[in-house]
Amino acid sequence: MSNYVIETWDLSKQYNGKAGCKNITLQVPRGSVFGFLGQNGAGKSTFVRTMLGLLHPTAGKAVMLGHPIGTVESRQKVGYLPELFRYPDWLTGQQLLEHHAQLCGLSRSQGRAVIRDVLEQVGLAGRERERIRGYSKGMQQRIGIACALLSDPELIFLDEPTSALDPIGRKEVRELITRLRDQGKTIFLNSHLLSEMESVCNYVGIIHRSELVVHGDWRKLSSVAPQVELTVEAASFSAGEELPAFVTESRLLREAASRATWLLTLDQDNRVPALLQALVGRGAAVHEVVQKQQSLEEVFLYWVQKKEGEAHVADHENHV
Amino acid sequence: MWPIMKITYREMISKRIFTITILMSLAFLLLFGVATWYAAREMNESWGGRASDMLLQKNFFSTQLLGMGLYFGSFITALLAILSSVGSIAHEVESHQIDTWLARALPRHRYVLGKFGGLTSMLVLYALLMFLGILGINQWVGGGMLAVDVSAQQIGTSLGYFILMPVILVCVSLLLSSITTTVTGGIILIILYGISFIGGFVEQIGSILGENALINIGIISSLLFPTDSLFRQSTVALFEAAEDPISFASQGIFGTTSPPSQLMFFYTLFYGAATLALAVRLFGKRDV
Fold first, then answer.
1. Please, which domain of life does this record's source organism belong to (chain B) (predicted)?
2. Which of A78, A82, A91 lies at the smallest CB-CB distance from B99?
3. How many domains does chain A have?
4. Taking residues B120-147, what's their average pLDDT?
5. Which DSSP letter does residue B259 get?
6. What is the count of structural domains for chain B?
7. Would the ipTM clear 0.90, i.e. be above it?
């Protein structure tokens, strides 16, 4: 069994050579919560819909759960909550789930048990006999999540799963995702709500203007520019030639009373002890060293801006 | 395939158009029954014991009345078939309802065939009840005066042609629904049905006038969309051979003086199968 539930090689889905997603090469580790991040229109949903066979790729190839995408086998153990969740509103929640249970090949008794379970999980127990047309948006999103969980999937695609939920609903979905991850399931989470992703995702892929910028363990991606906030006695320290070579950048953040706070960028995240040693050795009176933990938002912005910068340079060179 | 058939049944039944059609169909049958009853009473009063002398007139009026009922019955069956099936796939694609179905381990051909199975079985049942309802009114309400003398074999053959019409319509409808939007598909299908409808009349007029050009227009329209020829074959089968100059199948506004050939019937079957196969193929290739 492969360690990856999704592997793609230069997967592209473009519309007349534009938009969509382009040359996506990534691996999603089994049992992870993989956050696919990008701005609106970056190509996140296009990628998911291509993986699920709703769209046909224009180039590249991909394997999902060991089978080429577009095949029935690849979707056998997959759950999906679409971004534009629409369900036949003339059905009741129970009827919708029964139909999906039948499509999953569950027997009537299996279906009943599973439906009860997923309704409990999404907090809709007791409301399943109501017609979907009477459901609020949040309830429709919950019934959508219930549908995605029906087949006891190994891989679950959740495309903006909290877009219609209130803060309590969002928290419940985050807890649900964590529970599913603990059960060994892989969650592929599409969202641009970075603060929500941060708490549940361990892996991320960042897509910008149809192209994958980077992917991997997001806490490692954040270490691309390790930084420390250093508070020292202003008179005892000045940046410049006094700093060791592994400090690649320094910037004065603030100065209050006799203390100055500097933001230092290091070449590696294990330089803090050496930095302290060097500073003390040079007579700096150190009050505080705080290793800056980058948020997912900062990681995202860093990579997107980096990509933008590269694109700008490339454009400039082309013009020259 | 069964879950898709089942949800298609549910969808059809839940639609207001279905309820309205059922109610209006019952109203039509009631009206047809009342008209038949009054016509039979009028004929009884006018001809009384001379009915055997007026056999030709009696048979003419009875077949005309039944032909009219069947024509209207086939018309509303066709409308129901068009309205219920033309958006069956297209609407689900437009609304993205289809996404969660197709994201399952469900091959697309099963989805289309499930829709086909669900729609055709419902519409065949509707056409069957409509046909038997109209014929039953003719036989029982029309009594000895207006009841058309038909054998079980004639009824069976005629019914076969009658119920095939919504099946062909569903095949074409699914093809359009697979490749285009609900509105576009609906417009194309209604125009095609109109061409077939008008073409059928033009062909019969051409046959009466001996105008080959008109007959050819009718044949071309039947080749383009062969539903009218099915109705013609249905009435010919019910009212005996049209080649017979005094056959009641050839008389009146719903008569068929230029009956479709057996080859046309096989062409119609091929037409339906080909459009359904094309629907499966094209839907399998498209993005949703």
1. Bacteria
2. A82
3. 2
4. 89
5. P
6. 1
7. no
